[in-house]
Structure formats: structure tokens, C-alpha cells
Write a structure and sequence with these properties.
The chain is built from no helices and nine strands. By secondary structure, the chain is mostly beta strands. Strand 4 and strand 5 form a beta hairpin. Strands 5-4-3-2-9 form a five-stranded antiparallel β-sheet, with no helix packed on it. Strands 1-6-7-8 form a four-stranded antiparallel β-sheet, with no helix packed on it. It has a single domain, classed as Jelly Rolls (Sandwich). The chain starts with a strand and ends in a 9-residue tail after the last strand.
Length: 110
């Protein structure tokens, strides 16, 4: 199982918050912001699954985020609103991860 709990506050419309990638590059989890909305993404042996927040997070307010992935479910909770996706996921046992990087797609406005 993998889980991440963070408090976020920013104004950027595109950025990467967290990336976890298997050593062989076949599986990864990424929590990022696309068009102001929080996106939990899981890529599992070529198949992609996403959960997108209903409300924007780039409003310069504090948001509480909990993201969880296990062998059968990916769950994203933002400010007590929860969304989930169910399938069969092979979780990597060897990996690298990155916390908080501005993506190349960002325009730097904030």
C-alpha cells in the first residue's frame, strides 16, 4: 500500500506535487495539478487511471489532501471530498520518488 498526506497552498495552474516511479519505469504514481485541478494518476503496465478533483486547488487557500493506492483501489480525498477508482494494480517494490517540482509545462505565473 502507498499513501500520502499533504497540506497544499499555491496559485499555479500546472505543477507536479509528487511522483513515484518503479525502477523499471513500467509503473508510476503522480499527484499533479492540471488546469488548476488536482489529479491523482496511476500508470500500471501501460494502462492509465486518473482521479481529478471537482474543485480547483490553485486558489491560494490551504487544502488537505490524502491520496492512497493499494492493490485494488486508488483513492483521492481533498478537503473531505473523496473519489476512488477500482481495478487490479501491481505496486512497484523498488522505486524512486520526487517531491514538489514545477513541471516544464508551467508558465511561471503565480
Amino acid at each position: 500500500m502507498f499513501d500520502l498526506y499533504v497540506q497544499l497552498r499555491f496559485a499555479h495552474t500546472r505543477m507536479t506535487i509528487f511522483t513515484w516511479e518503479s525502477a523499471n519505469g513500467e509503473r508510476w504514481f503522480q499527484l499533479h495539478v492540471r488546469d488548476g485541478h488536482l489529479v491523482g494518476q496511476l500508470v500500471n503496465a501501460g494502462r492509465s487511471y486518473e482521479i481529478v478533483s471537482d474543485v480547483p486547488v490553485n486558489d491560494r487557500r490551504w487544502h488537505t489532501v490524502y491520496w492512497e493506492i493499494d492493490a485494488r483501489t486508488m483513492k483521492l480525498q481533498m478537503d473531505r471530498r473523496e473519489k476512488s477508482v477500482s481495478s487490479f494494480f501491481l505496486l512497484p517494490s523498488t522505486y524512486t520518488y520526487v517531491l514538489g517540482s514545477r513541471s516544464g509545462r508551467s508558465n511561471g505565473a503565480g
